[in-house]
Design goal:
The protein has one domain: Immunoglobulin-like, CATH 2.60.40.10. Helices cover 0% and strands 52% of the residues. It is built from no helices and 9 strands. Strands 5-4-8-9-1-2-7 form a 7-stranded mixed beta sheet, with no helix packed on it. A hairpin with a 2-residue loop joins strand 1 and strand 2. The radius of gyration is 16 Å and the shape is elongated.
């Protein structure tokens, strides 16, 4: 029998980098999170976080010092009283400021969906995305 738990997955996402002067960039992160579980989860219990690195280092462990902290947000920013029903999705957009990049390099952003409650699987909570320069 499958336990009655939520199961969160990032089903689509983009990361765009817009120059704010010199080597400093603003990331615009748009992502869609789906609940593939069997029960609803409150938006306030769902969040994201990220780290980024040069494409050449994408296979390094996330504790490797070349992975830089990105940013994150929570679905609670959309509505603290809403919930994500089984099979439902929610799309959010958030920003990271003052991120230093070298435009001639290629970068990868590891985006994670997280929750404070137990879910069916945490193996599907990461999505690696190219950072696209605007």
């Amino acid at each position: 029998m499958i336990p009655k738990l939520p199961d969160l997955r990032i089903t689509s996402a983009t990361v765009a980098a817009t120059s704010t002067g010199g080597d400093s960039y603003k990331f615009t992160i748009t992502c869609t999170i789906k609940n593939e579980g069997t029960v609803a989860i409150n938006y306030a219990d769902v969040g994201t976080r990220g780290r980024y690195n040069e494409e050449a280092n994408r296979n390094k462990d996330l504790s490797f010092n070349s992975w830089r902290p990105g940013c994150g947000s929570g679905l609670g920013a959309l509505s603290s009283n809403a919930s994500l029903a089984p099979g439902a999705s929610a799309t959010m957009q958030f920003y990271c400021f003052n991120q230093v990049l070298i435009r001639s390099n290629s970068y990868i952003y590891a985006l994670f969906v997280e929750t404070k409650v137990q879910e069916l699987s945490s193996e599907n909570n990461r999505l690696d995305l190219p950072i696209v320069f605007q």
